[in-house]
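Note to self: keep these together.
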Amino acid sequence: MRRFILNALYLGTALISTITRPYGLCTPAVRGIPQSPLSNTLAVSREPQSLQHTRYTRIRVHGVDDFKKLYPLILDYIREPELASSVKEFVFRSHLWELRYYCETDQTEVLRAQEDARDISQEHALFQLVTDLGIEESERPDWVKILSWMKPEFVAAQEEALAATNRSWEISRFYHRGNTVFAHHAAAILLLLCPNIEILKIEEGSVIVEDILRRNNYGLLPAAHLQKLRHVTLLPTSDPILGDERFYIHLDILGMLRLFHRLPAIESVSVDAVWTNYDAGYIEHFPPATSNLKKIHVEEFTFTAGGRATSDGGSAVMFANIIGKALHEHKSTLRKIDLDIDEHVDRYEDVYGYRHADDESGHWEGWVDEWFMRDAEISTGPWMVSELPSTRPYGATIGSMHDFESLTHLSIGIMALLGALPKSLEYLLIRGYERGKVKRYDDQIDEFLLVKQDRFPLLKEVHGINETIPIAASVEDPDGNDGQLWRPPNMDDEWAEEL
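Structure:
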């Protein structure tokens, strides 16, 4: 975790296979399910849908009720593109279950055969749409078939088929899968159709959506999209197993940055409760200085460890000196820093006097891909935080902060704090200090109190010296410590209309 979290911070110094077939909708034979009443007439129903004329400011793609709104919305935006200009926020959280959860049955084979035989030759508007948006020619028929999956007459046919089979498990899963695959493709299209999106909240794991966003980010589509996108929030997976709120999320943060980091208006990418994604591989070495931004100001930085367990029972090990180097890159703009990491700070130097080597770079050459090389071609500067020059002694701490000229608020654990603070400081909170427990910390606090009035004339509020403020604790038994588990605040993500 330390590598990609800290390299993500360091990247801020300069920046801050589409699968188009409804995979898992099994392939076919016959028996046990009545023929859909529309199966022989689907190509005949070409009546245009009426415009909804609804001006949404927020679109959500989450459950089946959301899915049903997407097809008519796409038609609205094709016929009257100006309607799409009101959308400022887009929420995508729809996990696509893996193929292994689905089995071929006689019933689903019949449905799959009917779906494969469906005529889409008259879907001219959808064909023109995917052509204009830059979907490759060989993929367009699959996209059109999937995007037309939720036409009203097809939805009615699905309901009839479900009723005729008493909503059998196999048939229900087939349609659920088809609805979700449709939603992923529809979400990708809508992201390109809405030119004024400023806020995007997105769940990792959609090959379809991520492929479109990545191609847009690297300028590989016919037109540039999401040029006003400012804030991105990476959402926890909605998978019923992987999304267990007792545990940290295994998320490839730097890999997800590839979807947005070159966009011209991007300001922030946020995520909570993250753990190392062991499949990230070379993505840990993300070439910095590869966005369209030339400069970024980081004014506030909060990093807290604890509050959830890890799915494999492991724990994070963090090197405070690496965090210190990353923060030092923003020493002129940082106003507030809140670090609650003492539970995971490497302690070997405290015990053995050992200074950690700064080289964490490892070997990446055999693990690069097309997107890595596109960034590497324009990257400047060191690729790893640890390769930044050491401008001060660090030891097992974040190092001196005397030259953080804008810093007014600091909250930090006693282990990570070296002692040299800036004169601009107005608020100080120290976690984990208990007098008489560690002599070195007592000496450090006594020195601070001796010089406080003269050296820190602006410092009006100090906490954690006369009272012990606990550090964030690890959760080792999530079933027995439910009260300690961190949970995200409720997210306001309902569909919203322009007032």
